[in-house]
Amino acid sequence: MSKKYFIKTYGCQMNVYDSSRIADMLKNQGYEETLCQKDADIVLFNTCHIREKAAEKLFSDLGRAHLIQLERAEQGKQTIIGVAGCVVQAEDEQIVKRAPYVNFAVGPLMYHKIAGILHDIENKNAKESVINTEFPADSKFDFLPENKSQGACSFLAVQEGCNNFCTYCVVPYTRGAEYSRPVAQVLTEARRLVAGGTLELNLLGQNVNSYHGEDENGKERNLAYLLRRVAEIDGLKRIRYTTSYPADVDDDLIACHKDIAILMPYLHLPIQSGSDRILKAMNRRHTSGDYLKVVEKLQKANPDLRMSSDFIVGFPGETDDDFAKTLEIVNKIKYIQAFSFKYSRRAGTPAAVMENQVEEKVKKERLAVLQDLLFDYQTKFNQECVGKVMPVLLEQKGRHKGQLIGRTPYMQNLHVETKDDNINKIIEVKVTSATTNSLSGKEI
Ligand code: SAH
Ligand code: SF4
Ligand code: F3S
């Protein structure tokens, strides 16, 4: 019987992509996936360090995994527990100090080493926990095996790392300096995914619009160039790219929103705060005015384009007046979706040691106010969609028989009664009702 692996993924889409690449690697080695942790010979946690809560979740999950490891040992079964991702890069040896039963821990840039590490542990060549948090000279993407299509919607990492050093953020430390994959490598992977059934491709990067990969002739190319090349792939129906940094949106990229018909009319462009004073303290290279100008240009290029964003409330020094400016920007842009967070102090980042930290109670209140406003706009937009006909990419079965759930061009979830074999297809649907979080419709 082949050995089984179980992977739990926390955090961002980059982690989801990484987990799928690790899974492909394990499958290549003859392992099989299981969704039940108790059956797994290998348990891997792919972790996130962005906020305190995300990191703490890992240690409670590890405690549970340890109990299962002990139970299985009584039945004579070996269980290898591994940790990957940003917590590993940040905590390094601390992980095995806190959880000595962890057999291996690898940072985000070292996933291609996992197969070898597993081999050593299984053959008892590694008696101690193995920890690898190098920032290697070569890219993991050159060593991971070919990936399989993940269904009709696939992620494709084109860029990794960040040079922006926003003062609150751990990502530049956990993912290292910006790296862009060569154009040819991205295109090969994109073509393979489309041949395997992908209709929607989401090009990923921590700072995706600073992409500057080399083309086939060694020339540096930007994200706009890459998008145009990807858009030429036969059979591809939808393109998205995530996450962009406002100061790096150039005119070439803006033009793509006019020129590329399959580029979806929905863009995640985090502003974080509406106050220029706070944006400066965050070390963001844009003001709220710069941001508004970029959105205006984008919406001129494609009048159907709608925006989403990330927000942080309670950044050190944020006053009521600063917070009011965040609400102001929401009222101007009318985001159709957004993620909002209370500022979380992360050790090693400049903002963590700023003196003017905001009280937890104030953060909580501001978050509630902001989320109310964001939900209002989200609900309003969903309601505006009622009566419209939209192409919907059906991704999964719904709760009721004969019902499928899919995604609209605006990333809204939509429920529709249709035949089961429409899964992984795009069908035209007339929207009949809407709530804050989803739409329902009728196939036409
Ligand atoms: N590279 C992307 C996403 C980074 S992480 C970008 O630049 O937008 C995703 C979001 O987490 C960020 O946009 C930010 O809103 C939030 N975030 C990052 N660090 C945080 C912290 N210390 N506390 C609270 N939220 C944080
Ligand atoms: Fe973090 Fe800022 Fe880089 Fe985004 S741009 S990953 S928030 S440092
Ligand atoms: Fe989290 Fe690392 Fe992504 S910290 S948000 S998993 S880049």
Could you please describe the fold and organization of this structure?
The chain has 444 residues and is an alpha/beta fold. The protein folds into 4 domains: 4-132, Methylthiotransferase, N-terminal domain (Rossmann fold); 146-264, Transcription Regulator spoIIAA (2-Layer Sandwich), CATH 3.30.750.210; 289-384, Transcription Regulator spoIIAA (2-Layer Sandwich); 389-443, OB fold (Dihydrolipoamide Acetyltransferase, E2P) (Beta Barrel), CATH 2.40.50.140. Helix content is 34%, strand content 22%. It is built from 13 helices and 19 strands. The chain has a 6-stranded parallel sheet with strand order 2-1-3-4-5-6, sandwiched between helices. Strand 16 (403-407) and strand 17 form a beta hairpin. Helix 8 (223-231) packs parallel to helix 9. Iron/sulfur cluster binds next to helix 6.
Strand order of the largest sheet: 2-1-3-4-5-6
Helical content class: 25-40%
Domain tally: 4
Q: What CATH architecture of the largest domain do you see?
A: 3-Layer(aba) Sandwich
The count of β-strands is 19
Low-confidence stretches: none
Termini gap: 47 Å
Count of alpha and pi helical runs: 13
**Global Rg:** 23 Å
Largest sheet composition: 6 strands, parallel
Give the averaged pLDDT, no decimals.
94
Q: Using the alpha-carbon principal axes, give the shape.
A: globular
Structural class by SSE content: alpha/beta
- Say what the CATH topology of the largest domain is: Rossmann fold
- CATH homologous superfamily heading of the largest domain: Methylthiotransferase, N-terminal domain
Look at the structure and give the CATH class of the largest domain. Answer: Alpha Beta
- Small molecules in complex: S-adenosyl-L-homocysteine, iron/sulfur cluster, FE3-S4 cluster
Determine the strand fraction and express it as a percent band.
Answer: 15-25%
